[in-house]
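check these tokens.
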Amino acid sequence: MIISLRNSGLGKPGKRLKLVFRATYFVVVLSRELSSKSSKILGPILQRNASYITLNVDREHFHDVDKNALIDLVKEKNTNLLSQFGGIKKVAELLESDEKQGINGDPGSINQRIDAFGSNTYQKPPARSFISFVFEAFKDTTIVILLVCAFLALGFGIKQHGLKEGWYDGGSIIVAVILVLAVSAISNFKQSRQFMKLSKESSNIQVEVVRDGRRQPVSIFDIVVGDVVCLKIGDQIPADGLFLDGHSLKVDESSMTGESDHVEIHESHPFLLSGTKVTDGFGHMLVTSVGMKTTWGQMMSSINHEMNEQTPLQERLNKLTSYIGKVGVLVAFLVLVVLMIRYFTGNTDDEKGQKEFIKGVTKGDDIMNSMVRIIAVAVTIIVVAIPEGLPLAVTLTLAYSMKRMMRDHAMVRKLSACETMGSATTICTDKTGTLTLNKMKVTEFWLGKELFNEKRSLELNPEVVQMLREGVGLNTTGEVHLSPSSSIPEISGSPTESAILSWAVSEMGLNIEQLEQQYEILFVETFNSKKKRSGILVSNKNTRGIHLHMKGAAEMILALCSHYFDGTGMIIPITDEEKEKLETIIQDMASRSLRCIAFACKMTAEESHMGYEELQATGLTLLGFVGLKDPCRPEVKAAVQSCQSAGVNIKMITGDNMFTATAIAIECGILKDNEDLENAIVEGQTFRNYSPEERMRKIDNILVMARSSPFDKLLMVQCLKQKGHVVAVTGDGTNDAPALKEADVGLSMGIQGTEVAKESSDIVIMDDNFNTVTTVLKWGRCVYNNIQKFIQFQLTVNVAALIINFVAAISSGEVPLTAVQLLWVNLIMDTLGALALATEQPTDELMKKKPVGRTEPLITNIMWRNLLAQALYQVLVLLVLQFKGSSIFGVNKNTKDTLIFNSFVLCQIFNEFNSRKMESKNIFSGILKNRLFISIIGITIVLQVVMVEFLKRFASTERLNWGQWAACIAIAAISWPIGWLVKCIPVTRGH
């Protein structure tokens, strides 16, 4: 019948019948919906009293939920309100969420929740507009004085020569100033946008949720109300919610309340606030409000995350700028005084060769116009002298480097880390995931003193197998999800947990669901990096017997055991001889780079009143060892070698035992075969017990620290800093936070790293790879090197421009470079020059130099050698042109000044090539890789041709013929052989 109704050829009766069918179908479906949801519909009709909450009935999805009450529930930690809702389970039902299965992950269902409750995003303060950057650029005093002079010149010029001819001088300066301001504002605006983008990426945290019964990672921004979120140590709580289940869950609420005490979360106190951090335990939470509905969301919306802090290098550059600026002001003042004296003593001539000032004859307007012109020249000298391009160069370099580092899997959270990393002398690195692939796999299983391979595991005693299943399946933070559509179970959790669970499912026939139904969990001791173990106390629901299970580092667990199981299920006492044999097995596994995890248990036949601590205190029975292989990353050895050749010490700090740590360190190249292993390797406890003097004496020789605690890591960082090292530290755990904060550069791991670790770090290594740490080191050196290149380039221009104008003003009473021309030079060196030199990419040469260290001067002897040679050449050539140019070329004064201006600009263009390589004689090496540099040089040349050939009135220039252009290019090109010769002069690197 339905098929016939869908037929497009129906007549009027058929269409009516179709309409009646649809109406009937709608009524039936509606009645079913009403009957299935009667409790949800009837409840809200009742008025709010001690037992009920008023909920607004609406046909739209989730509009029967009192959202304000739901928000207040967690925000106010209101237990009365929670009981009025009917408890956490009723809240979950109301939000159509299941404690175990989570919510429906269908995009349509997710969108419905976002429509009803909002998204987990914050309203940011409006970004700064372009106009605000323009106004900020206008705050520069010298620019304001220059504009005042320009407007005065404009007024006097129009009054003296009329509008048609009189606007050129003042108008040209105004246009040039506006151009400089626009370029500066555009550059700062773009960098601001870039930093905002990076800030957004840094706050995009990955969170694990349960949807459709599967544990899956999602962005914090995609969390919705009703989501079941998995929490573990170090996580940031992504939204407001209620505790569903878990063990030993403690939360640091200091970010919200200011109280440093850690709050225990359990059934009686289930309230979890967005933005707080998990400090202990694990569990699941139900999300009840997101985004702007949470206190954290409202607080975050008022914070502007613009990355505009001053880095140490920027602060040093500001001092340098201030010093050079003072020299510039002094020179400008002297030029002003000299020009004024020469003018009023009748020693300056106008364009017609007549005296500009004759006492009692020259009009007041002419005098004022001449004064304004002289002041404008003096102010322009200040503009050129003050190297305002230096802060811009740092900003450009950092922004460009941050963008490129993001591509190389490193996200910069703190600007200063870029440049500090370039000075690093020591890197303290983790092992797991950083030096290794973090792809764990169980390769060996020992029961007592016997090795059991895949086939032999079938011979094991059933009782031993069952105890192993319990020890693995119950004492874990991982999860096994059996999908109806797939025969292969989906396993989630840390790499270690996942590997052990995979082994237990495939080799031991582990069935998690059966275990969870059979046992009740009484107590959980979560994994502790100090004790290096986890434990669980369970009760069998059928026999009421109590089982204790322990899991952790093999030698730690073995120390707790008095007996062990053999393959037949016999329990054998551990004598001194037996213990020695078992320790040898552990050492042998460790020497083959295997991570050795042991399982132990203890059983009581019936329910005991003894607690976890009492049971643990007495002898346990060893269930067995598993050996997990985590291969070294293939590229790590070359990366370690690269750092060592760059003068950077690599120290491995790991929780593994001495044998595993040694094997991995040799494999990675941290330890050499001929190394003095006695002094190069130390255990955390031994290092801790050294006297301060002994520690400081031995620390440089220590390359591997095994069995270390987070405190040992912090202690090592503090000692290295005391010895004058610039220390970079990698870390992933919550307990690594103190060491990450203490280090000069903290590098957290993006995959395995907890949110607490990331919060404490300066750079996040997105792929947990040591090779990326090396890349960050290379970029850090590149940032410092690029800024030094720009300082050398800019100071050459500064020194040359100041000397030329000063000498010319004193000797002839005029300056060869006008205000507009000097502003154009300023534009070339400040903006285009910064952009060209700031975007040089790192080279392998950088990794052949020794670290810069803390005390090396910003302007080295090498830089002084290069810049003084070039500045001296430019000054000599241009002063020759100033005094003899007219006779050499047979040209008038205006053409001679144009030749000086053109030669000066072309000298800077050619010198940009010299600045690319401060030490290498081959200045063209790798130039084709930097297309931006070539483009900027091309743009500068084109603009210079336009200035000289087409903007005669604007730039005060004259057209030059081919011969004159060739002469200017030849003068500029000589700077290349000069640069080559100068680099033959050996100098020390220091002051």
